[in-house]
Amino acid sequence: MSLLEDFAEYESASRRHGSGNSNRNGNVGRVPAAAPSSFPSTRQSEFVASAADALGVDVDGYITTTLDAEDAPIFSLDTVQFQVPNKIISLAVSNDVLVLIIEGAKVLRIKLQEAHNIQEVDIPINPASLRACNVFLDPTGRHLLLSTPQGENFYHFEGWDQMKPLAKFKSMEVTAIAWNSTAWLTGKSSTKTVLFGTHDGKIYETELRPGNDAKSKRCDIPAKLVAELPVRERVT
């Protein structure tokens, strides 16, 4: 689990339980001691050994990784009939969607179930300046965020013909994003609230959404600073 995901989990837990730690006697945060187990130790050992054997886990805690001969491989590599038109700078895959950032300030968006249908998207940046970038694709495969080491940030929503600058993300190099898993349940074109970390140890809160004007040349999505690391280091 990354530092940013740890922070997101901590914030969520604090909001759920922050107001429920006091009791009538004024004791704060006191947790009752667990009741002693009545399960005999010999039975515990037998149970642990049985469960470990079923899961392929050694009793000392190590997991057996050897595959049986009849087991299918977890993944495989195959060649495909696709010639990338330029050098690949970065890529991301999510929900059967592959995004390639290539030299020339272009994005190739490929739905892997329809690999013949490739969407080419422009990045409004000087092509010569795009030599490296961080790219983040949300779990639905619809929202794409691109961030450069120079602090330029761009957003793309599926169907757009070009990425749009994030005007309020100026001078931020985004290095990590903690996506909101509940966005799957809404069915709306929004990521809901997400957290993103930067190269200088800051954590921001925002919500990526396409807006009502698809022809607008930029996105005015706000970003709220919620935390800073005690040292200026990359959030991962």
Task: Describe the fold and architecture.
With 236 residues, the chain is of the alpha+beta class. Helices cover 14% and strands 25% of the residues. It is built from three helices and twelve strands; from the N terminus they run ααβββββββββαβββ. The strands form three sheets. Strands 1-2-3-4 form a four-stranded antiparallel β-sheet, with no helix packed on it. The chain has a four-stranded antiparallel β-sheet with strand order 5-6-7-8, with no helix packed on it. Strand 7 and strand 8 form a beta hairpin. The chain is globular. 22% of the residues are buried. About 8% of the residues have low confidence.
Task: Walk me through the topology.
Elements: H1 3-17, H2 41-55, E1 88-94, E2 97-102, E3 106-111, E4 118-122, E5 134-137, E6 143-147, E7 153-157, E8 164-165, E9 174-178, H3 183-186, E10 194-198, E11 202-206, E12 224-228
